[in-house]
């Protein structure tokens, strides 16, 4: 009888200890996963190595698996923003030309930038000149694996507030989306994205009214006549 009572007392203690061990092990696992994810995020955002690019793609796939319902995947990809950009009306360079230095180490993005620059030059309304050092450049064109961004690219401009003239610009293509096959960016869309960001760098705002390279999402269109007209009008001021 005494042994039975002891057994009845021991069982709850054993189950309680077992439950605590399971909970604590789970907490430790979550902490380790969080630290690993934070470490990888920091690494891909601060390195241009091939390993960083591979980790970026891996993290993108994991994020897609947990964040997106498969039935809504296509809609989510179609609505991916090209970037988030706002500028003051009439902001432009002092003349319709600028020097560009490409810092990207990704061959696909370098080719996309070069093609986009050539396409803008072919319009005749703005001239980009490639230079060999960033110190010579007005615009620096690079890339980054922006895991926490919802945009495929970014354009940042520095301007003189007194003259409303751009004095420097930085263009960034987001490898987290652009080099991940799950997002469907072929070379044409890479070029369209580069053209879009360069459009911001010369003073163009988003245009969701027309078929335009400056549409705020999708990167489905290259430079259109409406874009050429807007640049011509901007630099005629």
Automatic annotation (TrEMBL):
GO annotation, cellular component aspect: extracellular matrix
Peptidase M10 metallopeptidase domain ranges (all copies): 105-235
TM region(s), chain numbering: 21-44
Gene3D superfamilies the record matches: Collagenase (Catalytic Domain)
GO biological process, one term: proteolysis
Molecular function, one GO term: zinc ion binding
UniProt KW keywords: Hydrolase, Membrane, Metal-binding, Metalloprotease, Protease, Transmembrane, Transmembrane helix, Zinc
Keyword check for Membrane: yes
Domain of life per record: Bacteria
Protein name per Swiss-Prot or TrEMBL: Matrixin family metalloprotease
């Amino acid at each position: 009888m005494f042994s039975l009572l002891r057994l009845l007392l021991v069982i709850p203690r054993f189950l309680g200890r077992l439950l605590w061990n399971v909970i604590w092990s789970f907490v430790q696992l979550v902490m380790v996963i969080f630290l690993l994810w934070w470490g990888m995020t920091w690494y891909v955002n601060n390195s241009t190595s091939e390993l960083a690019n591979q980790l970026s793609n891996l993290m993108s796939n994991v994020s897609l698996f947990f964040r997106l319902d498969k039935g809504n995947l296509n809609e989510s990809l179609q609505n991916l923003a090209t970037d988030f950009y706002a500028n003051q009306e009439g902001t432009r360079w002092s003349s319709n030309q600028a020097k560009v230095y490409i810092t990207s180490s990704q061959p696909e993005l370098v080719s996309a930038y070069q093609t986009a620059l050539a396409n803008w030059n072919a319009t005749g309304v703005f001239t980009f000149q490639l230079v060999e050092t960033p110190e010579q450049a007005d615009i620096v064109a690079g890339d980054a694996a922006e895991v926490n961004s919802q945009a495929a690219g970014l354009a940042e401009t520095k301007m003189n507030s007194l003259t409303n003239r751009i004095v420097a610009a930085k263009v960034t293509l987001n490898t987290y989306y652009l080099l991940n096959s799950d997002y469907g960016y072929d070379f044409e869309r890479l070029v369209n994205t580069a053209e879009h960001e360069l459009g911001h760098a010369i003073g163009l705002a988003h245009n969701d009214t027309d078929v335009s390279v400056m549409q705020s999402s999708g990167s489905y269109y290259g430079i259109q006549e409406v874009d050429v007209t807007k640049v011509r009008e901007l630099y005629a001021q």
